[in-house]
Amino acid sequence: MKGIVVKSTGSWYKVLSGEQRFDCRIKGKIRLEDSKSTNPIAVGDWVEIEPENAEQAVISHIYDRSNYIIRKAANLSKQSHVIAANVDMAYLVVTLHSPKTLLSFIDRFLLSAEAYTIPCTILINKCDLFTSEHDLATITEWKEMYSKAGYDIFCVSAHSGENIQKLSNEMAGKTVVFAGNSGVGKSSLLNALAPQFASKVASISKSHNKGTHTTTFAEMYELPNGARFIDTPGVKSFGLLDFDKEELSHYFPEIFKTSKHCQFHNCTHTHEPHCAVLLAVENGEIALSRYENYVSCLLDENTKHRK
Ligand SMILES: Nc1nc2c(ncn2[C@@H]2O[C@H](COP(=O)(O)OP(=O)(O)O)[C@@H](O)[C@H]2O)c(=O)[nH]1
Ligand SMILES: [Mg+2]
Ligand SMILES: [Zn+2]
């Protein structure tokens, strides 16, 4: 029977199949599709299980993943740890201030999400605080910039409840992760979405130390709205998958789309004549800060290794 992995410790797995939950081990040696990974099965994986009794089963097959988030293992450049698989939506929670989310952080996150093929929606949280003329202008600017780039972006407030129902409806039935800097309100949003439930989810409120590479295992919770919420401290910002510099523009959707009109097919959109991207930046069709962050990723030798 088919089930979904809702918890993993690395040696055993909790698998949900219909209403039943099983503690599972991996049957014999399942061939590892991705031998670079330290863990063959992750939260979010769909698996085939063979029950041994009402509580225990063995995992006999792992279904192909639609996507997955990895974290590089420390000092073992070839090894990685799969944090979560089959994510339908990443919600990137951002704030204008208290704390301020940098556009460079947002653009790097979106780049990673594109590389992982995980759709991303931006939530501007704490909009109850952002009422000054200046803040409202910034919100308008961010909304315009990111919707032009192809992303959904809307304001929410965990405190006032603004758009919480909209968010809840949208999440229903999906497997989701919340990402964003510490202090932007991820835990508070979860609490607003599922008050009776949020206390169960502990790790998202723990600050995640960027510098450490301790093995982190995610856990999946079913929210009352039918969403499968993957809680992991590892997705504050996604680690980047390896990719070639030439592919970078593929992960800025609006740049990629426009680049079809560049004269050179291998245009880097920095100095080439008849570059459609440079033209679009000049006439405002592509936001300057998006372009600048594209260039800074392009120049950054560490892009592919950045956490
Ligand atoms: N004014 C306001 N404060 C919020 C909102 N959401 C969260 N906060 C506050 O921001 C702080 C950090 O929230 P928390 O949920 O712990 O952030 P996390 O680190 O992303 O999980 C807390 O003091 C919250 O009360 C909001 O919508 N409006
Ligand atoms: Mg938190
Ligand atoms: Zn170009």
Quick tags:
Ribonucleotide Reductase Protein R1, domain 1; OB fold (Dihydrolipoamide Acetyltransferase, E2P); single chain; binds zinc ion; alpha/beta; binds guanosine-5'-diphosphate; five-stranded mixed β-barrel
In brief:
The chain is α/β, with parallel strands linked by helices and 307 residues long. The protein has helices at residues 103-115, 133-148, 164-171, 186-193, 253-259, 276-282, 288-299; strands spanning 2-8, 13-17, 20-26, 46-51, 56-62, 68-72, 80-85, 89-94, 120-124, 152-155, 175-179, 219-222, 228-231.
Summarize the structure in words:
The chain is of the alpha/beta class and 307 residues long. The protein has 3 domains: 2-64, OB fold (Dihydrolipoamide Acetyltransferase, E2P), CATH 2.40.50; 85-235, P-loop containing nucleotide triphosphate hydrolases (Rossmann fold, 3-Layer(aba) Sandwich), CATH 3.40.50.300; 245-305, Ribonucleotide Reductase Protein R1, domain 1. The chain is 23% helix and 23% strand. It contains 7 helices and 13 strands. The protein has helices spanning 103-115, 133-148, 164-171, 186-193, 253-259, 276-282, 288-299; strands at 2-8, 13-17, 20-26, 46-51, 56-62, 68-72, 80-85, 89-94, 120-124, 152-155, 175-179, 219-222, 228-231. The strands form 3 sheets. Strands 10-9-8-11-13-12 form a 6-stranded mixed β-sheet, with helices on one face. The longest helix has 16 residues, at 133-148. The chain is globular and about 65 Å long.
